[in-house]
Amino acid sequence: MAAPVGTGARAEDSGHEKQDFQEKESVIPERAEEAKLKAKYPNLGQKPGGSDFLMKRLQKGQKYFDSGDYNMAKAKMKNKQLPTAGPDKNLVTGDHIPKPQDLPQRKSSLVASKLAG
Amino acid sequence: MGLLLAVGLQSGVADIISTVEFNHTGELLATGDKGGRVVIFQREQESKNQPHRRGEYNVYSTFQSHEPEFDYLKSLEIEEKINKIRWLPQQNAAYFLLSTNDKTVKLWKVSERDKRPEGYNLKDEDGRLRDPSMITSLRVPVLRPMDLMVEATPRRVFANAHTYHINSISVNSDYETYMSADDLRINLWNFEITNQSFTPDIVDIKPANMEELTEVITAAEFHPHHCNTFVYSSSKGTIRLCDMRTAALCDRHAKFFEEPEDPSNRSFFSEIISSISDVKFSHSGRYIMTRDYLTVKVWDLNMENRPIETYQVHDYLRSKLCSLYENDCIFDKFECVWNGSDSVIMTGSYNNFFRMFDRNTKRDVTLEASRENSKPRAVLKPRKVCVGGKRRKDEISVDSLDFSKKILHTAWHPSENIIAVAATNNLYIFQDKVN
């Protein structure tokens, strides 16, 4: 808590405030934990537990499958033998014929990646 | 508490158990797992020759309930994991249960066959067809006893009714209807009609603009006696009680249960840990119990502004919320159960611990479900978590807790002191010590 530089009386006031705040933080462990989290992830959403979490919960199970890639790769297969499930499962475009099982789960940009048990 | 526990039986189950449920008599215990299978255990009959074998549950039937699916239209992978199993009350010799994954509810009939017909005219005992021209006389097939066979057949499939993920199913006390709840809607079904649920949905909290979404439905249950009443809980820690007699769409609740929050206590985690993961009516129908991340609360249906009882499950986790958020454990959904007389409530925790609270004596106990600590017939020893300060010999410190060992699903026999505890992929059954 930044205390404005001022007269002696002002500094005393803000000292009291700072002490109250610290006491409050130690009394409520959640606040201390929140401070830890914000220190690690400064860009964490402003809304506490808001709709970001809910949207992620609703989108559980989303796996993207591009039929264009699938058909392109299938066409290429006619010319040369290619392994279908390549060693690199992240390669889902180009020569590799993706199957739903091969697709990686869409990674979230938030810290919490799973909401459903 | 009056409950001394002895280990009756423990079974290894192949996949992670995702739901556990006794039937209405307690004779059967069903488990669903992550692989879409249902395993039903049956209690051994009391026998004068072996009195100590009373209470053991053995495998009665196993079947594959759901398979994994891929919805190509929505690019959605549908897990086969069984989210919930609910039994129907028994009305004839067969048993019926509902099992559901994220999208589809199925009604299964489990029946016994102990006779088979023999002496067909047109086919012999192997099933091969006989030459009709060789048949000179007719006989009447007879039923002969055979080894008991338990078969499970799907009788109804209730599909394509949920856009979001089903979290609850509940059978109505009228035995004719049941509800299924997903994140935003609750559907009412008639057991006989599978191609549609009652439309419109009985609850729909989807906002016109999804950007305005602030809460989701987390659990729902019918009142045990009043077929027109049900409750549903939300991710914001509230419970709504609805009466289906008032309107076809119950978007206006009859009662709204919420505990006021002290705004000075609010933190980033407040809403997440207040999200209710389970709601259960008491057997009497007078109370509801809710489970949020750190507590279990009992509410009187006649008092909406606060719970009548609050029990701390593992309050020591309050100082661990940052790491529990990072490893996603803060989103774990614990269930809670009543005992038959509504005097004791039980819920799970981490490190394979589970907790019981006696509502009358106000005493509580922490027990552990693990192979190392449970020899058959041994009495379970109470456990204790040490919160800072000196750790006594038998205690375990908060930092030593294994958060991958979580007990999310438990069940209590409807009338006796027999409990089933699912610890990852192991099922433990404990019962009162019988002298």
UniProtKB/TrEMBL annotation, chain A:
Family: Belongs to the endosulfine family.
Principal localisation: cytoplasm
Protein name (record): Alpha-endosulfine
Compositionally biased spans, kind Basic and acidic residues: 10-28
Organism for this UniProt entry: Callipepla squamata
GO annotation, cellular component aspect: cytoplasm
Gene Ontology molecular function: protein phosphatase inhibitor activity
InterPro entries tied to this protein: Endosulphine
Pfam families in UniProt: Endosulfine
Keywords, comma-separated and alphabetical: Cell cycle, Cell division, Cytoplasm, Mitosis, Phosphoprotein, Protein phosphatase inhibitor
From TrEMBL, chain B:
SMART domains (UniProt xref): WD40
Superkingdom of source: Eukaryota
Assigned keywords, A-Z: Repeat, WD repeat
Statement: the UniProt record of this protein carries the keyword tRNA processing: no
PROSITE patterns documented for this protein: PR55_1, PR55_2
Keyword check for Repeat: yes
Entry's Gene Ontology cellular component terms: protein phosphatase type 2A complex
InterPro entries cross-referenced by the UniProt entry: PP2A_PR55 (IPR000009), PP2A_PR55_CS (IPR018067), WD40/YVTN_repeat-like_dom_sf (IPR015943), WD40_repeat_dom_sf (IPR036322), WD40_rpt (IPR001680)
GO molecular function: protein phosphatase regulator activity
Family in the record: Belongs to the phosphatase 2A regulatory subunit B family.
The protein's name: Serine/threonine-protein phosphatase 2A 55 kDa regulatory subunit B
Organism expressing this protein natively: Callipepla squamata (Scaled quail)
